[in-house]
Amino acid sequence: MPSASGSILTSAEDQRPESITDQVSSCRKFALTRGIQVLDDHVYADEAASGARRDRTGLKQLVAASESGAFEAVLIDDLSRLARDNYLMLSVLAQLRFSGVRVISVADGLDSDDDEAALGIQIRGIFNELQLRDLRKKTLRGQIGQKERGFSVGERTFGYRSIPVGTIRMDKKGRPRPDGYKMTVEPREAAIVQDIFSSFAAGKALTHIVKRLNQDNVAGQLRRAKAWSPATITRMLRNEKYIGRWVWNRTETRRDPTNGRRRKFAKPESSWMVNADEALRVVPQDVWDSVQTRLTEVAKIWPGQKGKRGFEVQHGSRTRVYPTHLLSGSMLCSCCGKTIAQVSGKDGGYYGCLTAAKRGCNNRLLVKRKLVERVILSELHEHIIQPGNIEYVLRRASEEVGRLTADLPNAVRLKEADLQAEERRIHNFIEFIGEGRGTRTLADALSQAERRAKDLSDELEMMRRSCEDTLTPPPRVWIEERLARIQEILERRTAPAALILRKVLGPVRLEPTKGEIGRPYYRAHSSLDVLALLDADPESGDPESGSNTLRKWRRGESNP
Known about the structure:
This protein is an alpha+beta fold. It is 48% helix and 19% strand. It is built from 18 helices and 20 strands.
């Protein structure tokens, strides 16, 4: 055979670098016996990459180099190193043949320039693909067997950790292997999960939760700062594992033959393996239900979804999920049953029927936003200030104090675990430096770990002192003073306060009423009582006062 320039392509899926070295050695020996000069700059390797993937870095570099005429032949240990998928292998061979490059498979004894080898290449490609499919089936069969025995198989989830169970044996490579692994709740991470669910159920926005977690440097599953994102939180909020329902084999992945990328596809429910275990529950059922309801409401206010364009027919109002005022999304027009909302921002804002603004309702009565809030919250205050209600608030406050006190020992244990973990890191750093392998970066990491351990120790000391102190509920006078300033307190956190008011008041129906004398006014019907609302500012004597927008809206000349 005349001398020719050649390159070597190798790949290994078993994570062993020795496999790559052995393949290169085999190809070099073959090249030496055939008089082929191997170019050292053109040895392409794909470590820990499946032969079924098209997007392997080494393979892409090889094809690109072949198009530029960098070599005349490609040596591979066997055809499965080129590709295990028959369609992919044939398409790569066609690309290389088009560029005038021959492919020689050393172990298979096949040469693409040999016309008689065409059938052998086809058969070998089919065999490699069947071998890969057989491996997948055996792997799935083994996983199903482990699941039937009650073990977990690669189901790592934030909030849980796997622990080895059963007899520990040594495998063929001398590594210890237990009978299997089972999931258990990881207290520190579970506390973070509970906090996320509680915050979202209380009306906090995803961006608010993400910002707080990143600012507090809360370690996520990736164990690095700024690792939290709205997408991560959303996936957590929809994960049924947190209520003890673990579903396995729900989806399968298939590789797209055109680009080699994997995509998930749903499997029939009959193939699912469901394990319901209350011992693995992290989130109470009522909190879970509240979160799922709010996720559904939030999803309605955003346009588009996968495969869809624009808003859905039954999209919701953003104000209902993220209220901007205390009564946003709570009031309905008794004439048409539609929403009453702010129709102008003049003088603090005016409420009116939105359907009337669009000429679909005759109710064009306006009322100041501040007046509505003052009257309704005043009535709410009178309702709450009753002696029986005060006693109820005191009792609930005592229960809440007791709950917080009961959680302190658990919080102390979590903080102790964090401190122990940090002290182990410090010990490992010191041992590493003591062996003479210290660097400036390692010294900086040691200093940071020591500062972190000091902060944890201080926090732990404060928490222990808190456990020793006796917490008492606030006095009755304090509660009454707070209730007297109910509107001021609620406005400090408008969005969550508005969501709570909706539950307390129920739908507030505003009925336009005209008395025998005086101006028209609204009567507000809620689950508390019937309230009367004047339609204009008592300090203003001009019924047409306000912005031009309001006057046009009253006459129906234009939409506000």
